[in-house]
Amino acid sequence: MYGHNHHAFSLSSPPTDSVVEDGELSTVCYRPEGLDQLLQQTKFTRRELQILYRGFKNECPSGVVDEETFKLIYSQFFPQGDSSTYAHFLFEAFDTHKNGMVSFEDFVTGLSIILRGSVTEKLNWAFNLYDLNKDGFITKEEMTDIMSSIYDMMGTCTYPCMQNDAPKEHVDNFFQKMDKNKDGVVTIEEFLESCQKDENIMQSMHLFDNVI
């Protein structure tokens, strides 16, 4: 019942209401220009987009996902640990419009970079994820928060030998390599240069390939 009202409401709503507009992907995404636009913007085929859309719509019938739903879906993938903090950070990276919602377009655009992007595109995306307050710099605290959230999510069964201070040691090591001018923050240039030069950093970051 609610769905029908929502549908009627959104069709008559002004275009400024982007959340509702995004929510009506059944009308947006499957008009050919919607799909064609996503085909141009992402590295997915038409068939893949249709499959992804079906899955997304199945989990999120309204066509958008809020943070709580995102955390819930994510927790099913990592039952052995606590994924809520990492899911929060990830949600913020996907929520490019900063409206507390991730639409199908937001989702597939991010996913396309993570799965099929060039090394530079992936690293830019990772930088944005690590830059928690989105000020263009990564601080040691931000990196520690992300690392800790990953350890929490993977749970003790994955890293039984990890000590509580493991994330901090990991970050100290990363930071020393990345912060070239020793000003206490890592810029996107430092991040890209360090990761592309140092195979170990890249491999450590590939730890996240199966996390996302």
Descriptive account of the structure:
By secondary structure, the protein is mainly alpha-helical. The protein is 65% helix and 5% strand. It is globular and about 45 Å long. The N terminus is likely disordered. It comes from Oncorhynchus tshawytscha. InterPro entries: EF-hand-dom_pair (IPR011992), EF_Hand_1_Ca_BS (IPR018247), EF_hand_dom (IPR002048), Recoverin (IPR028846). One of its GO terms (cellular component) is voltage-gated potassium channel complex.
Helix amount, in percent? 55-70%
* Continuous helix count: 13
Helices and strands, in order, run as: HHHHHEHHEHHEHHEHH
Q: What kind of oligomer do you see?
A: single chain
Say how many strands there are.
4
Mean pLDDT: 79
What are the segments in which pLDDT stays under 50 over at least 5 consecutive residues?
1-32
- Please give the radius of gyration in angstroms: 19 Å
GO molecular function: calcium ion binding; potassium channel activity; potassium channel regulator activity
Main location: membrane
InterPro entries: EF-hand-dom_pair, EF_Hand_1_Ca_BS, EF_hand_dom, Recoverin
Pfam family, one: EF-hand_8
